[in-house]
Design brief:
Blueprint: H1 3-7, H2 10-34, H3 36-39, E1 46-50, H4 55-67, E2 73-74, H5 79-87, E3 93-97, H6 101-105, E4 115-119, H7 124-144, H8 147-156, H9 161-174, E5 178-182, H10 189-192, H11 194-219, H12 226-255, H13 263-288, H14 292-306, H15 318-324, H16 328-341, H17 347-371, H18 386-397
Parallel strand pairs: 1-2, 1-3, 4-5
Antiparallel strand pairs: 3-4
Helix pairs in contact: 2-14, 8-9, 11-12, 11-13, 11-14, 11-16, 12-13, 13-14, 13-16, 13-17, 14-15, 16-17
Amino acid sequence: MKFKQFIKGQGAIASIFMGIFYAVCMLGIFLAGYTAIPGNVDRMPIAIINDDKGEYGEQIAKSLQKELPFKDIETKISNKEALEQLGDNELALVIHIPKTFSADMMDSKISSSIEFTTNEATATAASSSVAQIATTINDQLAAKFSSETAIGMLESLQIPKEQATAMADTIQNGYQGKMTVLNDIPTGMHNNMLPMFLTMALYVGAMIAAMQLSGSLKLNRGKASKTRLFVYMQITAIIIGIVAGLVSTIIAFSVADVNNDLFFQVWGQQVLNYWACFNFTAIWVLLIGEAGMIINIPILLFQTIANGATISRDMMYAPFAWGSYITPMYYSVQAYFANLFGSTATWPFILGLAAVGVGAMLINILIVACLHKKLPVDAPTPKVVPEAKEQVKEFAHQ
């Protein structure tokens, strides 16, 4: 065989196609999706709560609302409500000006502060961007309360210059920003990315199993009914999920800094995660055969952005945000953030993951019932008793 004949073969052509197709999908999806950083940082919602009864608090609150890049700034809620929403990832940053801020600024014995609170149990890009912005704001406020600036501010309030100079020295030494992190994740990128790694660890295996078990279903038609073969496929997926989930959980808890008491909860979610991902990826394979993997690959790449591990839903472009509602990875990743590191409830994400799995399974049932041909089941070979065997031999001899 010549090389020209070889490269024109089905295997070579398929390999060339997949090489180009995968590169186009990966770069097209990743580069387009990650342009949201830092461009869409302004979409993240924050809250500025001013409880100060003096002049400074109102001035600072108005200045921050005007200068900060965020479009959605909540000001009509209490600090307690804001912190609860921050814990539920409904807010990305809470800036609180306490009620004694102005009075503390004028008291040389007391240091005043503005409280900046962020939540680490969320998308990496969101938490790091907000933390950086909070630090920058704090530095700017410290500069704003420098002696020279404070003198000008106090003189504008018609305070005599000598008195303003003395008060400015007190203000300059009195401000200290307070940076607070809610749900602090242990140091290390492996901890920060653990929710995504746990999800991805089983998703790829489930995708391959969807192709193999769907092939087994088609191959064994005629040996059992379609219903029985479909049930066998589901049971096999659950068994694999239990085993693969256990192995992945053991590895994760051996390497990452997580609470060992959560072992069985994580293992249970891994089983659910595998089953949901299996049914989700089996849709295209059952529909068009092994060629369905060509569709499953870009869907997998799509979810690495839409799962919310790196970019929060508020920052995503519309297609990724919409896709996060109907794909399993988002719910799995967010459930892990909540369970392993967060303060919000896990059950809404677990229910979302289960709903995606059930919905995908129902679609698969319809595909198998309507599109897969029904073949007659082979009749079992009748058992022949010894006496009958002897009679058959004698008849054959005659």
